[in-house]
Design goal:
Number of domains: 2
InterPro entries: HD/PDEase_dom (IPR003607), PDEase (IPR023088), PDEase_catalytic_dom (IPR002073), PDEase_catalytic_dom_sf (IPR036971), PDEase_CS (IPR023174)
Oligomer: single chain
CATH superfamily of the largest domain: 3'5'-cyclic nucleotide phosphodiesterase, catalytic domain
Bound molecules: zinc ion
Shape: globular
Largest sheet: 4 strands, mixed
GO molecular function: 3',5'-cyclic-nucleotide phosphodiesterase activity; metal ion binding
Family: Belongs to the cyclic nucleotide phosphodiesterase family.
Enzyme class: hydrolase
Number of strands: 4
Strand content: 5-15%
CATH architecture of the largest domain: Orthogonal Bundle
Protein name: Phosphodiesterase
Length: 490
């Protein structure tokens, strides 16, 4: 079972003679927990600093729901590593660009440059003021409500059906400057990648690497500044749900990257196939409200009305992705020829719609048939393969090591429990697998891994080689782990 009560931990702040008491409620997200730790360290959580938490024996422990309660006599030790280098580094790069532009500026440009410098100075001042203010502020209370998209029409006025991309004021957005070692690059290509070690800004840098490594920037003449703006718009269009958030988006994309590299199918795919896979995984849960299709339909939300109860969420995710791509500022496909764009759009929509588990049986049956005489040159076979890879990636957490995967199970259960609580409060039908009084973590995992995940991955392995050791074995190990956990709770 996921922890149902608040865990209290005592933390000594390194370098300060202070002992902080932190309560971790069961329903908060890992980001919210981290935010409280940043507050305890009296630094803002967007400072770019890294928090290192160790137990009394000096072992590093991850900040999240896995933390055990402790006593004042044996507190954890919290160290702050780094400073505001990341934010100030970006500002410095921007100033460098302004200076470089000034060398060749025409008189007409000078006023623009002056305005740019004044605006950057102002941002730096605001950043400093913000850091001071945030450091002094108490941690925000954890409040979770359904997003406006999932609110019943009868209760709240209808909101805009499709979120408009944010306006980006990033004339001086810097080019990718992350430098990754060959070892790190190889790690990002592996299915055992640990997402918890990276914050959201770093994940944007890793996304840039994936675009580059797949050869997409060169092949589709993607402007790197537009790519960065696109990724920021994507990040901002994911909601802060316990599970369906930007980190899940990254995990799904990274697992797709891990699967196509491990199976070496990356060598058989065309550039357009890789583009379809990456944009599908990036967009597949955009603006997810944290409530399932069943809730949307039962509560007759705006999304259910707009999409006539047909995969309301998946239709919405695809629509938000193409809304972002329709904005010239974030359209990274501007240099893609029309016929290629149309083909990509058709298949991205198919891949995103394929993530609706209500379509699972249908897609499994179609791919099983195709796998009997699979042909990479057959457009329908290829399209089904891309859908299967996206589906595998979407439910792939158990491919990762247990310490990476298990917090995701707890996040998903928290999102389910939240939905079930709201459904009960609104008098709507509830599903037993979302009910905090009926579900256990081990029971849920044994069923899901055994009946959904393993059959899907085994079917995929009929076409994708080299799946057994690095991809399917960890899933089987995870099944054993949860079966043993289930036995112990009986
Ligand atoms: Zn997903």
């Amino acid at each position: 079972m996921a922890t149902q009560s608040t865990t209290t931990v005592y933390v000594k702040i390194d370098g300060a003679n202070r002992l902080e008491t932190i309560d971790i409620p069961p329903n908060c997200t890992v980001d919210e927990i981290k935010s409280v730790f940043y507050s305890a360290a009296e630094i803002p959580d967007d400072s770019g600093c890294i928090l290192k938490l160790t137990d009394p024996t000096g072992v590093i422990v991850p900040i999240g729901h896995g933390l055990d309660g402790n006593t004042k006599d044996e507190p954890y030790l919290l160290k702050v590593i780094g400073d505001n280098l990341m934010n100030f580094g970006l500002m410095q790069s921007a100033l460098d660009e302004v200076t470089a532009s000034a060398q060749q500026a025409s008189p007409a440009d000078v006023q623009d440059l002056k305005t740019g410098i004044i605006s950057l100075k102002k941002k730096l001042e605001e950043m400093e003021a913000g850091i001071a203010k945030k450091a002094a502020a108490p941690p925000a209370a954890v409040v979770r409500t359904p997003s406006s998209f999932s609110a019943p029409v009868a209760v709240e006025p209808a909101s805009k059906p499709v979120r408009k991309p944010i306006t980006l004021n990033s004339h001086y957005t810097t080019k990718p400057k992350y430098i990754l070692t060959e070892e790190t690059k190889e790690y990002i290509r592996s299915p055992s990648f640990d997402n918890w070690a990276w914050d959201e800004n770093e994940l944007i840098g890793l996304f840039e690497f994936i675009f580059e490594d797949l050869g997409l920037i060169e092949e589709f003449k993607i402007d790197v500044v537009t790519l960065k703006k696109f990724l920021i718009a994507v990040k901002d269009s994911y909601n802060n749900n316990p599970f369906h958030n930007f980190k899940h988006c990254f995990c799904v994309s990274q697992m797709m990257f891990g699967i196509i590299n491990t199976t070496k199918v990356v060598e058989k795919l065309k550039p357009i196939d890789k583009l379809i896979l990456l944009l599908s995984t990036i967009g597949h849960d955009l603006d997810h409200p944290g409530f399932s299709n069943t809730y949307q339909i039962n509560a007759a939300t705006d999304l259910a009305i707009i999409y006539n109860d047909i995969s309301p969420l998946e239709n919405h995710h695809a629509a938000v992705l193409f809304t972002i791509l329709s904005n010239p500022e974030t359209n990274l496909l501007v240099n893609v020829p029309d016929p290629v764009y149309r083909d990509a759009r058709k298949n991205i929509i198919r891949c995103i719609l394929a993530t609706d588990m209500a379509k699972h049986g249908e897609i499994m049956a179609a791919f099983k048939k195709a796998s009997e005489n699979f042909n990479f040159d057959d457009a329908e076979h290829k399209s089904l393969l891309l859908q299967i890879i996206v589906k595998c990636s979407d439910i792939s957490n158990e491919v990762r090591p247990t310490e990476v995967a298990e917090p995701w199970v707890e996040s998903l259960l928290n999102e389910f429990f939240n939905q079930s609580d709201i459904e009960k409060a609104q008098g709507l039908p509830t599903a037993p697998f979302m009910d905090r009084d009926k579900v256990t973590k081990a029971g849920a995992q044994v069923g899901f891994i055994g009946y959904v995940m393993i059959p899907l991955y085994e079917l995929a392995s009929k076409v994708l080689p080299n799946m057994d050791e690095a991809i399917i074995k960890p899933i089987r190990d995870s099944l054993t782990y949860y079966k043993e956990m289930l036995e112990k709770t009986k």
